[in-house]
Amino acid sequence: MSKSTIKVALIGNPNVGKTSVFNQLTGLNQQVGNYPGITVEKKQGASKLSDNVKAKIIDLPGTYSLNASSIDENVVIELLLNKKDEDFPDVAVVVTEVENLKRNLLLFTQIKDLEIPTILVINMADRMSLKGIEFDLPILERELKTKIALVSSRKKTGISELKSLILNYESLSTEPCLNASVIDPDYFNNLRRAFPNQLLYKLWLVITQDVNFLNLERNEIKNSFTKSHSDLKRLQQKETIKRYQFINDTLKIGQKIDASKATDLRAKLDRVLTHKVFGYLIFFGILMLIFQSIFDWSKIPMDFIDETFTSLSAYTKNHLPAGEFTNLLSEGIIPGISGIVIFIPQIAFLFLFISILEESGYMSRVVFLMDKIMRRFGLSGKSIVPLISGTACAIPAIMSARNIENWKERLITILVTPFTTCSARLPVYAILISLIIPEERVFGFLSLQGLTLMLLYLIGFGMAVLSATLLNYFLKLNCKSYFVIEMPSYKVPMFKNVALNVIEKTKAFVTGAGKIILALSIILWFLGSHGPTNNFKNADAIVLQELELSQNIASIEPELIENKISSYKLEHSYIGILGKAIEPAIRPLGYDWKIGIAVVSSFAAREVFVGTLATIYNVGNHSDEEVTIKNRMAAEINPVTGEKIFNFASGISLLLFYAFAMQCMSTIAIVKKETNSWKWPLIQFVFMSGFAYLTALIAYQILK
Ligand code: GDP
């Protein structure tokens, strides 16, 4: 009986165009989630095969073989070994590509030996004539005991043939390619005798891999058949050799390559793009261009979003009946949603550029270029992208760490990326620098203020590298890593791949981190607009009374009165009380309770600092805000010592605090999402903020 839904597992080496085939099969019918308990992304989609049959397609992580070396690869093995898994496929589709067929087939023969019905896709058929490659498909099908779909996901050819092969999967042969006992007859024959009802190759995988496979059974198998580690390795190598012998024999009769027809543009480009000097120059040129565009292009939509939400919030406040609910909406929920939506342009543009670089094949050259340098710090060549995109915003940057295969390197990258100076620190730096660093020029032309700003960027990057080194030393994670640098050929990016990638990443951010940002904004709103005491509740009356006592109230601008009331309220709100409560802890850093409130509310997002101080210092919006708040800050005097509050010592202390502290709940949310646990964001939060406190303390105590 035929099924109405056929479960398909899409498997293949990285860079063979598996995602493109998946996109062609499923279009927008995709869902992205995580495998339970781990961070590996789980992508699945639906594809209509005929009027009443559809395929549920699971896009498994790219893997070179079934000899797992990363959690991504474990996912593949675990699924294929566990028949009871609800996703266990009816049919496996192994994607390969014309140029690297030999290497790609290694994985294919392993999957075949698990005796699952298997279809072979040879993708990138459009490159065959360019590379002078021809296939004898009937011979290949006979030798590999499979059906082949010759596909070009770029030219959209062969997809319907693939669909009809999936539809008729029941007619596929499940005969293995390699008889496992040829690897070592004695060992394997014993194994077969001990477990006559089990598949030999499956037993072998259970013995060699650390996969979660029905624990009892696994221990039993392992106990009686474990060999020394080196013996197992030797057998694995033997297996690989046997497989390649088989593949070579097959391709000798089924494939023809006429190298004289191939072009060598690729070699020429590679020579320039991975050159010791030009390679870096070109890379940094491209980066400059990208960041300029991200800033320039996102500014317009970001301003638009900002204005729209501000007016929406004002509209709500003015048109809905006054009360708690209206306040929650206009001061909590709407700004909260705006705090999510405002990141969308940056995320979308960054991923637009990253996917173009990836799709074109250029990214692999950059990774190759950077790998040696980054590896010294426990990072991967691929960490360069997150570290640099962190200058715009840590959120898309941390998301872009996903394509680092090695979990330890990826984790380190995620943990250190927030040290890079993001754009939210910029307004804080700008105002503090203008307060404490004189407007002087060094050597007659270099602005001292500009140099300070650059220094802060360098400190951030240096700190990222330094903590990576420390983490590399202390993190004891067992991640087997043999890094294979993949050098795919250059290609014009496929629009569909780029577009789907941008949509998927943006969606992941909005639905993942977005929820947490919204929830935290509402909590912060509540804490800032509610207070436990009568002082808070009767703020209006108290302030008016105080003012009346001191001067003629009619002579004071109404706006100033409003501001006085809201600053009084803030002082007696929960956040205000918190600010005062932490005063003893922050006084040694040179801050008073008002700065304390700004620092505390900055833990929601750094850019709140200036705004909060503006509210506290009673600054109205009627004049040029930047100048006014700056003047107000410059004029703040410590009532006890008579000194300026924002002096060189406290300013430097604040700058260092903002450089190092983890003050961004969106980042915490995204780290939680990407690492799938609260452990890492908490460690990151404590370490970064603790370090920030310490350096700020030392700086102030030395400089004061
Ligand atoms: P994955 O790593 O296996 O998921 O591969 P992707 O789907 O991301 O594709 C890797 C690269 O191959 C991208 O640059 C694609 O544009 C390109 N690509 C995918 N399919 C084809 C194809 O049929 N022909 C050509 N010429 N390029 C392709």
Automatic annotation (TrEMBL):
The keyword S-adenosyl-L-methionine does not apply. It is found in: Cell inner membrane; Cell membrane. InterPro entries: Fe2_transport_prot-B, Fe2_transport_prot_B_C, FeoB_GTPase, G_FEOB_dom, Gate_dom, GTP-bd, P-loop_NTPase. Keywords: Cell membrane, GTP-binding, Ion transport, Iron, Iron transport, Membrane, Nucleotide-binding, Transmembrane, Transmembrane helix, Transport. It comes from the Bacteria. Coiled coil: none annotated. CDD domains: FeoB. Its main location: membrane. Residues 5-172 form the FeoB-type G domain. The chain crosses the membrane at residues 277-295, 333-357, 377-399, 411-438, 450-475, 508-527, 645-670, 682-703. It is a multi-pass membrane protein. Probable transporter of a GTP-driven Fe(2+) uptake system. Belongs to the TRAFAC class TrmE-Era-EngA-EngB-Septin-like GTPase superfamily. FeoB GTPase (TC 9.A.8) family. This is Ferrous iron transport protein B. It comes from Flavobacterium jejuense.
